[in-house]
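> call design_seq(struct)
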């Protein structure tokens, strides 16, 4: 199993994936842009992370996040919230002066959003529509070439052979984002609680 990029998620039973990526900044800067409570920001090993936050990891109002870096991109994994897709303000804020990606899926909905310099440019939502549609860019989507490459078609609304979740993961990888699985399960990682909205 590949433990880098996003491909490792394909076969995993993940109850909630709620990720925000921003290009060209550090993980700490991303947490600051997301509104992390500065008193909770620290590098924690996995035992300390679970000792401190374990009982709240799946409470949607606990706002526990871990963060790291993959190539040119900082990432933040929301373990107990989905602020990255609750409206467009967070992605707009964190992408100021650069580019940002939000990727979310659970047992039901799946979302992919892309923003540059504070402006949402593309948004795909499997819950909002059973057909492939870019809710911002329409058929002139910034991702039209990538969608065709993976067998999806904006004109017909066909997700192609991958289906929505895998297609969204592939779109995110095409932009250059990723997460090292070991940062979520083995290595010490920067973590915090976001300030509730």
């Amino acid at each position: 199993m590949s433990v880098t990029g996003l491909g490792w998620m394909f076969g995993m039973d993940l109850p909630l994936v709620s990720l925000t990526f921003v290009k060209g900044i550090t993980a700490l800067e991303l947490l600051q842009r997301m509104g992390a409570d500065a008193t909770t920001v620290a590098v924690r090993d996995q035992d300390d992370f679970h000792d401190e936050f374990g009982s709240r990891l799946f409470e949607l109002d606990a706002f526990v996040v871990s963060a790291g870096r993959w190539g040119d991109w900082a990432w933040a994994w929301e373990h107990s919230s989905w602020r990255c897709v609750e409206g467009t303000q967070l992605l707009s804020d964190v992408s100021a002066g650069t580019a940002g990606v939000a990727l979310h899926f659970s047992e039901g909905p799946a979302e992919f959003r892309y923003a540059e310099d504070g402006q949402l440019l593309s948004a795909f939502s499997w819950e909002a529509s059973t057909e492939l549609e870019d809710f911002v860019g329409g058929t002139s989507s910034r991702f039209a070439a990538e969608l065709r490459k993976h067998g999806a078609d904006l004109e017909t609304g066909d997700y192609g052979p991958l289906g929505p979740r895998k297609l969204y993961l592939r779109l995110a990888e095409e932009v250059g984002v990723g997460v090292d699985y070991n940062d979520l399960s083995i290595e010490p990682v920067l973590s915090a609680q976001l300030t509730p909205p």
